[in-house]
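Annotators were shown the component list below and the corresponding predicted structure, then asked to write short factual statements about the assembly.
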Amino acid sequence: MSCRSEDILEFLLTRRSIRQFKLESVPDDVVLKILNASRYAPSAGNRQPWIFVVVKDGKIKEKLAGIHAGSIPLLRAPIGIVVACDKNTSPFSYQVDCANAAVYVMLVAHALGLGTVWIQTLRNIEEIQKTLELPENYVPIAILALGYPAEKPQPRPRKPLEEIVYLDKYGNKYST
Ligand SMILES: Cc1cc2nc3c(=O)[nH]c(=O)nc-3n(C[C@H](O)[C@H](O)[C@H](O)COP(=O)(O)O)c2cc1C
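Structure shown to annotators:
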């Protein structure tokens, strides 16, 4: 691999949630390139309980964009990708497995110059299942609005390391 580790760190630190998109559509081969790499996300027992529903249809996208106030960015994105998880295949870890896959989609998209934002689904599961005609065992874990970025947001603040890192036991400071 030719990438320097510093470049990879920089890549990770420069991903942002994107909520404004260019009108430009995303070619199918690019979508498939993203999903092809996203299949390599880790999952418990390598069960890969995910499926990806690529939403291009304007009416369906509009319906998903209406599930709550935070889903509006979907209206401005050419594509939505719904990551849904088969809870029968992986009853204990389907949510974390699919979260891994969703983060892979976000990172691969970023690597290809596209932007994403994760749209919350977990309060609207039945509504989304109905809209996408998903079987009851497929739980939508994330909707990712996907497109070419039309904004360059500043980084959102992060908690300081001192607040979130402990040594051996909760409350024990980890310091150099
Ligand atoms: C589980 C989850 C749910 C989220 N839901 C929404 C959402 O519904 N709408 C939205 O605009 N952003 C949503 N976000 C994006 C977060 O607001 C964003 O990741 C966070 O503010 C950090 O900003 P950054 O991604 O630019 O680093 C969600 C993120 C996660 C991981």
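Statements collected:
1. The chain has a mean pLDDT of 97.
2. The longest strand covers residues 138-147.
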